[in-house]
Every structure is written in C-alpha cells, then in structure tokens.
Amino acid sequence: MIHFFFKIFILFFLINPNIVKSDTYSVNKNLYLGLNAGVFSPNDVDFNKSESGIVNGVTYSASVAGTFKFENGFQIGGLIGYRLNDFLAIETELAFVNFDYDVLNLSAAGTATAGGTTFTGTANTSYQVEGDISSLSIIFGPVLDLDVRENLEFFVGGGIGFSKYNDEIKSVGGSTGLSYDEDFTDFAAKFKTGINYSLSQSSFLQLEYGYNFVDSGIENFSEDFSANSFNARFVFNY
Q1: What integer pLDDT is reported at residue 29 of this predicted model?
Q2: Is residue 100 a contact partner of residue 69, using CB atoms and an 8 Å limit?
Q3: pLDDT in the model for residue 37
Q4: Could you read off the pLDDT of 49-82 as tens digits, one per residue?
Q5: How many whole angstroms separate alpha carbon 208 and alpha carbon 37?
Q6: 25 in helix, strand or coil?
Q7: What 3 state SS string does 45-106 have?
Q8: Residue 22 pLDDT more than 60?
Q9: Nearest to 133 by CA among 166, 164, 104
Q10: What CA–CA distance (Å, rounded) separates 13 from 113?
C-alpha cells in the first residue's frame, strides 16, 4: 500500500502540465548535510542446502530448504552532498538499520545443530524465529534532480559501498539448534528516488524511497539480501 501511494504521488508531479523549469531554493549552495529517519522493510531470503555442511557454525543436513521472513525495522542516518551543478550532485550516505526476524517457513525437512543442540524441522511448517540483524552502511554515488515547480524537485540516484552487519538468531521454534551470532562486511548498493521540498533559502525536506541490496548470499546455501526503505530527511545547505 505504501508503494502504491508513493508511485501515484510521484506520477502526479511528472505528468502535471504545470511542470516547468525553475530555480528552486534547494540548489543555491554547493555543500549540504542531511539527517533522516524512516522505515526499513526487508524482503524474504530463501535458502537451500543440497548437501550437508556447516554454515555460520551451524551444521545442516542435506536437502533442507526454506525461507526466512523479517519484520519491518527502522533506519536512521546522515548524508553529506556536494552539488556539481543545478542538476547533479555527489552524495555519501551513512545509515544504521535494525530489524527482527519473524518466521522460518520450511519447504523441505531437515536438521540444524549448534552447540550440541539439534533443531529438527518439518516440511511445509512455519517456526517462530527469535533474533535480529543490525547494520551500518556507507553508500557513495550521484544524484540527479529535476525542478518540478518553484520549491519542488524530483530526484533519482544511487550508489555503491559496503554494509557491516551483525546477524544473530537466538532460537527457532524454541530450539537453539539453529542459533548463531556472526559479523559480516559485504558489498552494498542502493537505488533511490523521491522529492525535495524547499523550506527556505538554505533548507529543505526530502521524502525518499530506496531499494537496498547487500551481497550477502552464501554459495550453495542462501540468496542475497534486499530491502525497501522509506525515509524523511531534513537537509541544510551551507
């Protein structure tokens, strides 16, 4: 539902016949800083262990497969940008994210053993997961903005960087057989789009949608991580 209204909002300003080129207040300075907070919505992560083996200190039996689902979390962060001209800027974005695991949906039965305890899962069964993921990421890349009308801009951008995160599962279905606590650092990327609304000659509000990617997939086990984010940001021009 959030995606739907956001797309309608952006589409309205793109097709509005009153859209004209104008000098908005938000492009009058080169250097700017921003602070943001918002919602972080992770996508499901599938895994499939075709052969028995150890992953993150957990011993899995062969042929076990399933999907990890997550709850929505929060994101806070900061941004520093430098405007090259009226349309193009380079930004560095720092973000802290935290969200909880929700459930594990097993599609193929199997076992997982950690610390001398074994979790035995049944196919086509959901298990409550207690655990969370927290991360600190840095993304660097270009942003293109286009004037829509006075004080209003549409922007699109993206970048690459890295994500340093902690992945902890305390229990699955009440069992500690699939528990672990590991730290990782992986390549990350982000696509973002949204609107800027100028409040004054030196400040503006920003509403942003982001698609986030982390190269966290483990060969012969799990796929990469991705998520949608929705942020509100206050930006101050120097």
Answers
A1: 67
A2: no
A3: 98
A4: 999 999 999 999 999 999 999 999 999 999 999 9
A5: 10
A6: helix
A7: EEEEECCCEEECCEEECCCEEEEEEECCEEEEEEEEEEECCCCEEEEEEEEEEEEEEEEEEE
A8: no
A9: 166
A10: 54
Distances (CA, A) of 234 to 15, 32, 45, 50, 114: 26, 10, 32, 48, 45
For strand 203-214 and strand 180-198, is the pairing parallel, antiparallel, or unpaired? antiparallel
Segment 90-100 shows an average pLDDT of 98
Collect all residues with Cβ–Cβ distance below 8 Å to 118 and sequence separation of at least 6: 111, 112, 175, 177
Helix (H) or strand (E) holding 158: strand 152-172
pTM higher than the cut 0.70 = yes
Domain 2-43+74-100+130-237 CATH class label: mainly beta
Report pLDDT for 102.
Answer: 98
Taking the C-alpha atoms of residue 141 and residue 123, their distance in angstroms, rounded to an integer, is 43
Q: Which two tokens stand for residue 221?
A: 């086990």
Do residues 216 and 232 touch, judged by C-beta distance below 8 A? no
Please state the domain extents for the chain: 2-43+74-100+130-237
Question: How far is Cα 82 from Cα 30, in angstroms, rounded to an integer?
Answer: 5
